[in-house]
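User: Hi! I have a protein structure encoded as tokens and I'd like to know what sequence might fold into it. I'm fairly new to this, so please keep things simple.
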């Protein structure tokens, strides 16, 4: 089965093309450009066949952030300009920082596939797993959670990786309190240990690393917490440790109930993906699909994703426009 492009009924898509005059008016109203500067941009557009934003950046009249902020306001779309906390440059969120990029489009496509796969599940509970480190697991979890919140889904992102937690860095959060304290009984589930990044996105970081992570994560500790929170949520996304480094991810995914498996081109072995999927299914985890992640180390750019339901491996990995991140 070939994965064809789909119409994302849940997505806030790339804004429709606006005329240069209309674009210019938006930036004038936002106080970003003067009429003389708009005319200068339009002249460059006509001679160089550039889009309005590209011409404005080439003339150093607008930054990418300026363009995104004005478009997001015009189309009522949540981006990084709406964040209540900062972002670590080493842990990028293209769904927030470059919402009209191919990377963000790929994330939205995965979101749509997951919403279709999880129809009837309230809330949708999803563990993001991968065989090893550096395959884009945390990157995928953070971006997916943000994307669900963008379409009004009440979303909780949990960092259950007690081996090498990273979620807090994606949102420039304090990691002194978090899931480890809640599961060990030292903290209550309150806003003191969770951060509301957006009106619909809460983040529960891992907290201090426990000496006995597997014991703390054992059923029913995590499942009881999820059940307690599920009444008020539409989506719960859980980041996990590398599946082949410990039993943690299997224990976590079993309590979450479903998983998305992530692999990385030129890094993840197909045999390891098979083992990881089988390990999930052996303990009753529903595998929603696999994401094949790419990373262009030469340019440092995150590029393309493929997603598929769990099918025979020769048909399960497709190549789509470039996207991905190493963790």
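Assistant: Happy to help. Inverse folding works backwards from shape to sequence: for each of the 327 positions I chose a residue that suits the local structure. Here it is:
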């Amino acid at each position: 089965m070939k994965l064809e492009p789909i119409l994302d009924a849940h997505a806030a898509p790339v804004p429709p093309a606006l005329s240069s005059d209309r674009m210019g008016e938006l930036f004038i109203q936002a106080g970003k450009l003067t009429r003389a500067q708009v005319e200068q941009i339009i002249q460059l557009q006509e001679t160089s066949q550039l889009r309005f934003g590209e011409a404005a950046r080439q003339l150093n009249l607008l930054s990418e952030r300026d363009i995104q902020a004005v478009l997001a306001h015009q189309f009522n779309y949540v981006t990084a300009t709406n964040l209540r906390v900062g972002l670590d440059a080493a842990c990028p969120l293209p769904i927030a920082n470059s919402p009209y990029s191919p990377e963000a489009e790929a994330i939205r496509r995965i979101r749509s596939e997951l919403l279709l796969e999880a129809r009837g599940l309230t809330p949708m509970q999803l563990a993001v797993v991968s065989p090893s480190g550096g395959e884009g697991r945390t990157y995928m979890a953070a971006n997916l959670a943000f994307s669900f919140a963008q379409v009004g889904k009440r979303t909780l992102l949990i960092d259950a990786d007690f081996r090498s937690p990273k979620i807090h860095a994606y949102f420039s959060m304090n990691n002194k309190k978090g899931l480890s304290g809640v599961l060990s009984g030292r903290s209550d589930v309150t806003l003191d240990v969770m951060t509301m990044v957006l009106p619909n996105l809460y983040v529960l970081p891992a907290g201090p690393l426990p000496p006995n992570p597997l014991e703390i994560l054992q059923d029913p500790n995590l499942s009881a917490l999820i059940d307690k929170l599920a009444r008020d949520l539409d989506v719960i996304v859980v980041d996990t440790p590398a599946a082949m480094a410990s039993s943690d991810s299997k224990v976590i995914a079993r309590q979450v109930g479903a998983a998305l498996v992530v692999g990385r081109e030129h890094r993840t072995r197909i045999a390891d993906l098979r083992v990881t999927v089988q390990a999930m299914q052996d303990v009753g985890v529903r595998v929603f699909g696999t994401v094949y992640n790419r990373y262009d180390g030469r340019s440092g750019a995150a590029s393309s994703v493929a997603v598929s339901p769990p099918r025979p491996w020769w048909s399960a990995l497709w190549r789509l426009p470039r996207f991905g991140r190493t963790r």
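A useful reference point when you look it over: Strands lie at 124-129, 155-159, 195-198, 201-204, 235-239, 258-264, 286-296, 301-308. Feel free to ask if any position seems puzzling.
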